[in-house]
Design goal:
Largest sheet: 8 strands, mixed
Distance between the termini: 86 Å
Family: Belongs to the myoviridae tail sheath protein family.
Strand content: 15-25%
Helix content: 10-25%
Organism: Candidatus Manganitrophus noduliformans
Protein name: Phage tail sheath family protein
CATH topology of the largest domain: Rossmann fold
Structural class: alpha+beta
Strand order of the largest sheet: 2-3-1-19-20-21-25-26
């Protein structure tokens, strides 16, 4: 700030404080087979209603929808879905145009692969605003109209081009125009009945737009005393125009024609095709278009070359299973493909790589040792998420649970497994008996609920972790049976009379291999701290590597850790007992500085769950008064 005149100057001085914001720990991602939905990306849903709209309903051969329902039932709020499939095919139907010799013009696809698309029907009608050039598509599912896309154009340059409008607005279909189909028809603008055949001197201008090149004002030259003379003047003025766009064929102007016959004016583009059109609008001054009744706003009729390329009017064009007859030239039956294999689920993890806000990952119902190994290794490599694993539905004995965990080859502290499966009322109402569901959907929801209520440092277990949406377990475990399961990292779900169905374990599968991260909340707290600091100190990159930077890092990271201490995230009665942050000449030597490195050491005393509450009781001998 320059100081040139005497007075008081106010300057804002940076405090050096850059608050670190804690990352979310409750965003989950499920990988599984769904009825419909995209296969090439992970999408977030925030309710089960939203899940159903995008990914469909319950399936007999998949637990994804059930897991999503139980995730939201048990406190989850944000859920990414990765849909997997093996050989699924999208249903489609191809419709012909309105030319004298019809050709394929528009193909309607179900917007995602699967047999679900075979229940779609398409109605085609003329558009409401411009019935001569536009059209309307009504989309029905199982006979119920769900979407209407009106006032669509077959002109690729139009703002209402069918492909663009449907892509932007439809949740059910995609529309693809056949690029090879075109027309020689030339766009026209025909005046309304009984137009003027003479023009006074002050009404000799109008605005024309030929082949979508852009509006240009023309001025008509004398003589203008008959309809024929006016038509000739229009033709001469338009032919003298220069195209505004390089893509516009010059013939659109040089071969432009205007005529007057049977009491109306007809203006015709000099170049035909799907982009061919003539549009007339009023000039801002000295307007003559109104007197000549040219342009839609003045009672004229304009028809583009693309009008004849519109799909033929008809009802109930069946997507997928249409008979190839009449206006339907081809159709493809939608298919779910074959049962996805484990490699398909494993490939789905790659779609989560760009979703850095994912903290909890599960593959509901795929309860194999290979999948738990893969999921735990994936999360360990990312270092910012945690895998919730299922055992197989048939693993319903203590011995099978033991064999499952001891058979894991990746003892990752970034994974936990839960046992046994749960019983739930069939949400479809088909089965009179409870159905069996994997625990991962319930558990992921419980993680999210405990995180939001108590913090990520609270174990997602105990009487507070009371599971909703279940009526029983496939196997009720006793204390004696859990004695052999808990030490090896099997998190048991149990039933207690006063608490109902609860999660009664909080160990990672690395409970023996990596005792430092034996407990789920310890590992997840470490993830939370690491990722929060990582995001919060990006500003430090390329800063001068000296004491000022080190002090700023100590200040900001220390303030973040103090916030966690006050929230009860650590052991210790004082901050010095709970955590430390060190960044100085001891952590960063001159050799580090020369190499462009600054080292910060952060330590914390994690809270560990009280698994074993021991009450020691003794008799007190009677004493005389």
């Amino acid at each position: 700030m320059e100081r040139l005149h005497p007075g008081v100057y106010i300057e804002e001085v940076p405090s050096g404080v850059r608050p670190i914001e804690g990352v979310s720990t409750s965003t989950a991602a499920f990988i599984g087979k769904a009825e419909k939905g995209p296969l090439d990306r992970a999408l977030m849903v925030t309710s089960f209603i939203e899940f159903q709209a995008t990914y469909g309903t319950f399936q007999n051969d998949s637990y994804l929808a059930h897991a999503a329902l139980q995730f939201f039932n048990n406190g989850g709020k944000r859920l990414y879905i990765v849909r997997v499939a093996n050989g699924a095919v999208a249903a489609d139907v191809a419709i012909v145009d309105r030319k004298g010799t019809p050709a394929k013009t528009l193909t309607i696809f179900a917007n995602s692969p699967g047999a679900w698309g075979n229940a779609l029907d398409i109605d085609v009608a003329d558009g409401a605003q411009d019935s001569g050039n536009e059209f309307k598509i009504t989309v029905k599912l199982n006979g119920t109209p769900l979407e209407i896309h009106d006032n669509l154009s077959m002109n690729p340059d139009a703002t209402n081009f069918v492909e663009n409008v449907v892509t932007a607005n439809s949740k059910l279909i995609k529309a693809v125009v056949d690029p090879a189909n075109d027309t020689t028809n030339r766009g026209t603008s025909v005046s309304g009945a009984s137009p003027a055949t003479t023009l006074p001197a002050g009404n000799r201008k109008m605005v024309v737009n030929v082949n979508g090149d852009g509006p240009q004002t023309i001025t008509l030259a004398n003589p203008l005393t008959t309809g024929g003379e006016i038509a000739t003047a229009i033709e001469t003025a338009v032919r003298a125009l220069v195209p505004l766009r390089g893509s516009t064929p010059t013939a659109a102007f040089t071969a432009f024609t205007a005529g007057f016959a049977t009491g109306v004016y007809t203006l015709t583009s000099g170049a035909g095709g799907k982009r061919s059109s003539v549009q007339v609008t009023n000039a801002p001054s000295e307007n003559g278009a109104t007197l000549l009744k040219l342009g839609r706003n003045n009672g004229g009729v304009e028809q583009a070359g693309a009008a004849v390329l519109r799909p033929a009017v008809g009802a109930n064009y069946h997507v997928g299973d249409a008979a190839v007859a009449g206006n339907v030239i081809s159709a493809t039956l939608g298919s779910d493909g074959i049962t996805p294999q484990e490699i398909d689920y494993q490939n789905g993890f790659a779609l989560l790589d760009v979703r850095r806000d994912v903290n909890i990952v599960a593959v509901p119902g795929i309860g194999s040792k290979t999948m738990v190994d893969f999921g735990g290794n994936y999360c360990r490599n990312r270092q910012d998420c945690f895998f919730v694993g299922d055992m197989g539905a048939a693993d319903d004995t203590k011995e099978e649970a033991q064999a499952f965990v001891t058979g894991l080859t990746v003892k990752s502290s970034y994974a936990a497994v839960y046992f046994p499966w749960l019983k739930a009322i069939d949400p479809t109402g088909v089965s009179p008996e409870p159905i069996l569901l994997p625990p991962s959907g319930y558990v992921a929801g419980m993680y999210a609920r405990i995180d939001s209520r108590r913090g990520v440092w609270k174990a997602p277990a105990g009487t507070e972790a009371n599971i909703g949406g279940a009526v029983g377990l496939t196997k009720e475990i006793t204390d004696a049976e859990q004695d052999t399961l808990n030490p090896i990292g099997v998190n048991v779900i149990r039933v207690f009379p006063a608490s109902g169905i609860v999660i009664w374990g909080a160990r990672t599968v690395a409970t023996q291999a990596d005792p430092e991260y034996r407990y789920v909340p310890v590992r997840r707290t470490a993830i939370f701290i690491e990722q929060s600091i990582y995001n919060g100190i990006q500003w430090a990159v390329f800063e001068p590597n000296d004491e000022d930077l080190w002090a700023s890092l100590r200040l900001n990271i220390g303030a973040f850790m103090m916030t966690l201490f006050r929230a009860g995230a650590f052991q210790g009665a004082t901050p010095s007992q709970a955590f430390f942050v060190k960044a100085d000449s001891q952590t960063t030597t001159q050799a580090d500085i020369d190499a462009g490195v600054v080292n910060v050491m952060v330590g914390f005393a994690p809270l560990k769950p009280a698994e074993f509450v021991v009450i020691k009781i003794s008799q007190k001998a009677g004493e005389s008064a």
